[in-house]
Amino acid sequence: MSSDITTPSPDIDLSVLTRNRRTLGVGVIISLLLFLFLEINYGWRQGALFIVGLGAGVILYHAAFGFTSAWREVANTGRGAGLRAQMLMLAVTVLIFTPLIAQGELFGVNVRGSVAPLNLAVVCGAFMFGLGMQLGGGCASGTLFTAGGGNTRMMITLAAFIVGSLLGTWQWHLWQDVPSVPPIALTQSFGLLGGMIGSLVLFAAVWYATILYEKKKYGEVVAEPRSNFSVLRGPWPLVAGALALVLVQVATLVLAGRPWGVTSAFALWGAKIAGLTGLDVSLWPYWDRAGQAASLDQSVFNDITSIMNFGIMLGALVAAALARKFSPSPKMPNGHIMAAIIGGLMLGYGARIAFGCNIGAYFSGISSTSMHGWVWFAAAFAGSIIGTKLRPRFGLT
After folding, report:
1. By mean pLDDT, which of 37-46, 97-106, 174-183, 321-330 is the weakest?
2. CA 109 from centroid of its chain's CA atoms
3. 8 A C-beta contact, residue 384 and residue 131
4. Which end of the chain has fewer beta carbons closer than 10 Å to its terminal beta carbon, N or C?
5. What's the rounded Cα separation, in Å, for the pair 248 and 183?
6. CB 320 within 8 A of CB 23
7. Rounded distance between C-alpha atoms, residue 218 and residue 78, angstroms
8. Which residues sit opposite 181 in a β-bridge?
9. Taking a C-beta distance cutoff of 8 angstroms, is the pair 349, 164 a contact?
């Protein structure tokens, strides 16, 4: 591991250095003020969850742990290092999650997994999400950390993501009567140990499939090329990012009583913005569910997913500044803008009807041994392959 204390190279542009130092200062100050605000007004748990979000932002940025790029790499080149890192992340999380969720309560907080029905909405929504993540340039967590890190195109994707989420809540009820199978969790069907073993077998199967595919295509498996890295400036190895995200997932479960999620906040933000225009979204069936309508009247700082998302963006901002890579550029081809808008709309709409995104459905669902997470993964991966093939049409490499 390289030293984190380095002397600026003479080749470094001083304007870049100055911009990133200022950005770092602003990011740290805003993060500190927001943490104190949450701690004082909403309690220590909200403050702690914000810190977890900050950590997630730093991890995602420094490890470049994008679900989008890992899946695109498999489709484009056949290299599966990123997907194998995800299987490692899921396997470790299942081993920790399963006994914790079985307790039913941790430190006075009721805990539950992310388990949802297996229906056509999951298939359609996940496929749409997978396609959208390749056009938009990121998944849910990827959109947040790249936008927070100063990527202008991803800010457009995020805005479209929010609009798509709002559209998804508007039409949510239309997807509730599609063909469906009741929720299936491996731990409920096969017991605690059986659920864990079944999950590990599935992870191993995906891992082995990537090995076989890579060997068939190249005759060998290429390890991740990174060797030296800086903790503060990155880049981190994929394995380090995977294990660090396990900590984020477990911390969220312990503090919030449920696994990590991202996109429900986008629906809430969209609803609140729509409310400012006079649109009464509380009449929509999506918000008529238990506990949902109340969130429309409460501050976004009372929403766990929102404050974690704020943390992710600020954490990525700080990480980008530490890496001296914060450099927003408003100039971009029209094709990139169109792809960001179309992709963002598909991401938002797909996540709402599919019970979540790559975090809420894929990461959290599979970690909870819910089979809907595996259905989501299969459909989203298929959509991702199509999206990868469509990228060149928008000038995306």
Report:
1. 321-330
2. 24
3. yes
4. C
5. 25
6. yes
7. 9
8. 118
9. yes
